Amino acid sequence: MNLRRMRKNHALLFGALGMGALALTCAGGAVAAVQGQCSNCHTMHASQDNQAMGSGPFDVLLLFDCLGCHTGTNRPAGTDPGGTVAPSNAPGVLDTVDPFAADTFLAGGNFYSVEQGNDAHGHNVKVLPNGHTDGDLGNIPPGYDGTTPTVAALESPFLSCGGATGCHGDLTVSRAESEAQSFAAIAGAHHGQTGVVDGSTVGQSFRFLLGMPGGEDDDYEFTTSASDHNIYPGKARTVDSDIADGGDGALTMSGLCAKCHANFHNSSPAGTSTGIEGSGWGNPWIRHPTDFDFSGLGGEYAVNMDVYNPLVPVGRDIDAVGAGNFQGLVGSADQATNIGATGGNIVICLSCHRAHGSQYDDILRWDYKDMVAGAPTGGMADNGCFYCHATKDGA
Ligand code: HEC
Ligand code: HEC
Ligand code: HEC
Ligand code: HEC
Ligand code: HEC
Q: Whose CA is nearest to atom 24 of ligand 3?
């Protein structure tokens, strides 16, 4: 990592500008809106004593861009707030030292390895100083159906944090420049968090993913256990359709991924997307099922489900839980198990992948090479694929 170059391109350091730490409050598990003096984060003219303020000016009169606040090593729970970088108190998604070795990455993973040049380890987002282009895949998402309106402009301004070619905020917002598009897409979110995570506004959506409800772990999964984790929205579909991101006006996590990777999640009426089902909804599939409730299958699929495994998260049905009720599950007894849990056991993209980046190829949550039938390596018995396919490990 060339830190010097990053500092030039991004306003990385609060301390360098003499800004104090920011205060935040936590309520009901979800992190509440940003607090503190305006001048901690904003500058009216990007000028002080007739000198430029840092490397700005930046969008929304801010002293920093997205990575300026969201880069660094996450601090453990116990510091307040846990799972954030100093001194911005923002959850860190790009570290400058290996967060996988140090176990300081959050639920979405970390862009560190992508930034180190391992393109297959994550999404190559435009604003990353070095890792912004995938040498193999370019800007085309595998499984792209060629029609999804939100990615029509993916070639420009390229894969972005938010907006039409990104994941966070309003996916209809499009701008010529990547960072400006992201800020426009999430406008108001940092000041708009209320502790309610029902998807009704960007601030009240799961991690600013507009329309998505969910249960937000208070330290962003810096620490995890069966009773300490996010709760992801899924859908107990009975047809190979895109209803996961329609129905309730709400998004499931996998429905969001399908905005760009449609073939891996659903067929389309126009026939541009082949989807996951073969000759009907159920075994045999032609691609791995997602937004599929497997709580009724029994057999090997029930063996490990008495204990929720944060390394292999299982989602909950958005209709059964209700958009406004996910956050209430955080910290409840219902969180610690999948058996009998409200909303069933839904396979989701994030059962196997992280969203930002990981230390493994294909952004997987574990090393696929350890998944050896009858003889798992890396301590992966009853874990990874074997968490659900419990009898395939031979253990
Ligand atoms: C806005 C479009 C978009 C969305 C939404 C999106 N992706 Fe991607 N994805 C891409 C693009 C473009 C690539 C290829 C270039 C790259 O790796 O950045 C990609 C690549 C990938 C890869 C292969 C990584 C590699 O480099 O080999 C995986 C795995 C993946 N995405 C998973 C996901 C998951 C899981 C989600 C939902 C959490 C998701 N994607 C949501 C655009 C998107
Ligand atoms: C901890 C950092 C932080 C502090 C303190 C802060 N802001 Fe912001 N503010 C942001 C960020 C980040 C954005 C842009 C992203 C967004 O809109 O979510 C923003 C956006 C805004 C916006 C445009 C979007 C909206 O919500 O209307 C206004 C106006 C604004 N801030 C005013 C203020 C004022 C006034 C203060 C002081 C009372 C203040 N901010 C304090 C971080 C901060
Ligand atoms: C001035 C510093 C600052 C900037 C600039 C900034 N953020 Fe943040 N961000 C924060 C802080 C502090 C938090 C934690 C408090 C909160 O959730 O609002 C946060 C939280 C978040 C979260 C988690 C929200 C949740 O529900 O837990 C997301 C997602 C996010 N920011 C995205 C962005 C994106 C995208 C940009 C650029 C378009 C950006 N941020 C720019 C300071 C910043
Ligand atoms: C979160 C649980 C879960 C995880 C993790 C998981 N699977 Fe599956 N898998 C399922 C379910 C549920 C089915 C559907 C079974 C059915 O319909 O009878 C399935 C089906 C399959 C099928 C057969 C498809 C068919 O037509 O019946 C294969 C092969 C498979 N998975 C391989 C894997 C591999 C390899 C991994 C690890 C990379 C993995 N699975 C991880 C839950 C999971
Ligand atoms: C059961 C585990 C599992 C689930 C669930 C899953 N994936 Fe994957 N994914 C994998 C594995 C393993 C690979 C590695 C290549 C392979 O075996 O196909 C992969 C590869 C990929 C790739 C790279 C494909 C390429 O052409 O390079 C993308 C993109 C991707 N997955 C996206 C998704 C999306 C989007 C979803 C949800 C709709 C999803 N995955 C659900 C396990 C999974």
A: 207
Instruction: Please provide the size of the chain in residues.
Output: 395
* CA separation, residue 241 to residues 244, 291, 314 (Å): 8, 10, 20
**pLDDT tens digit string along 207-218?**
999 999 999 999
Report how far residue 1's alpha carbon sits from residue 341's, in angstroms, rounded to the nearest whole number: 43
Integer Cα distance of 321 and 245 in angstroms: 16
CB 178 within 8 A of CB 10: no
Q: Which residues line ligand 3 (CB under 6 A)?
A: 22, 24, 31, 33-34, 41, 62, 64-66, 68-70, 88-91, 161-162, 168, 182-183, 186, 190, 193, 207-208, 216
CA-CA distance, 296 to 67, in Å (whole number)? Answer: 43
Cα–Cα distances in Å, from 51 out to 36, 46, 47, 137?
Answer: 24, 8, 5, 43
> What are the pLDDT digits (tens) for 229-238?
999 999 999 9
Q: Which residue has the tokens 């798992």?
A: 376
